[in-house]
Structures are given as C-alpha cells and as structure tokens.
C-alpha cells in the first residue's frame, strides 16, 4: 500500500514536470519532454507529500516488527 501511494505521488509530480503536463505512458516509445523551468510553488505540495510518504516507507522498513512481512515480499519476488 505504501509503495503504491509513493508511486502515485511520484507519477503526479513527474507529470507536472513534463511539457504540457503530459503523463508518462509506459507503452509509448518516448517519454514526454521535461519543462525547462518549473515554479517551486507549483510542485511544493507534491514534494512535501512525496517527502512524507518516503518517511512512512522508511519508518515501516526500520520497524523490526515488519521483518517477517518484508522477508515474505522478498521471497515472493525471488520465486
């Protein structure tokens, strides 16, 4: 859940950094061009949200009570 929220927030921020606020499409052969200039005020809220979500992920990873759950995810991804 945390990684999905983080991914969504990152996607929203990246979209605001692209020319004409074009979304990145993984199926497209090319990525949208980045804007040369972006006002900090236009992305500040997104940056703060991203920072907050990264902090949540960090806390989750540092919490030893989540060790077995994290280990399970790793084992799943390796099989």
Automatic annotation (TrEMBL):
Coiled coil: 3-67
InterPro entries: Erp (IPR009618)
Annotated keywords: Coiled coil, Plasmid
Pfam families: Erp_C (PF06780)
Protein name: Erp C family protein
Protein source organism: Borrelia bissettiae (Borreliella bissettiae)
Lineage, highest ranks first: Bacteria, Pseudomonadati, Spirochaetota, Spirochaetia, Spirochaetales
């Amino acid at each position: 859940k945390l990684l999905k929220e983080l991914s969504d927030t990152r996607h929203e921020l990246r979209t605001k950094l692209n020319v004409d606020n074009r979304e990145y499409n993984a199926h497209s052969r090319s990525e949208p061009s980045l804007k040369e200039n972006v006002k900090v005020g236009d992305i500040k809220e997104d940056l703060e949200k991203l920072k907050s979500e990264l902090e949540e992920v960090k806390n989750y990873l540092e919490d030893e009570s989540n060790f077995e759950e994290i280990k399970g995810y790793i084992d799943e991804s390796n099989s």
